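Morning F.,

Quick status update on the modeling queue. The single chain you submitted on Monday has been processed. Sequence for confirmation:
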Amino acid sequence: MKNKLKILQKFWKNKKVFLTGHTGFKGSWCTIFFNLLGAKVVGYFLKPQQKLNLFDLANVKKLTVDSIIGDIRNYSKLKNAISKFSPDFIVHMAAQPLVRDSYKFPKYTYEVNTLGTINILNIINELNFIKSALIVTTDKVYYNNNQKNYYKEKDLLGGIDPYSNSKSCAELAVKTYNHSFFFLKNFL
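Structure tokens below.
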């Protein structure tokens, strides 16, 4: 186990990671882990809505090079923040994550979850220094036939509520950008 940890620390030491949504529960944990592995993290976020949250309780902000308050829908601010930091990797976790809120605010949910992801993808396509990206969605992207408790990457996309569908749209956007732009860059 110690060997694997040393390998991870050697790989991540001083790597620059731009992490959207680092104030969320999963984003806070990712920031903590990247910090333990020696990576330099810049977070891009909206302020947490709950007073009690992991980001504040664990003082995650002190583990970042910078924490930028910004809306994932603001393309120019997002691109400027990424360009200024010039990260090796992008981890995109920013989202409107609540199914119930997606019924109250469907337009906002699609703007954040789908168009926010497209903003990230388009910026990656425009900038040449980003080595890799991880775009995080949810198991809710899959069509749920209530007959199985697990999903595979090749399962049918679905999502009948605004949250799930917005994340399915994000998955399709990732597939399109990967095929139409990122895959082709290797051959052009």
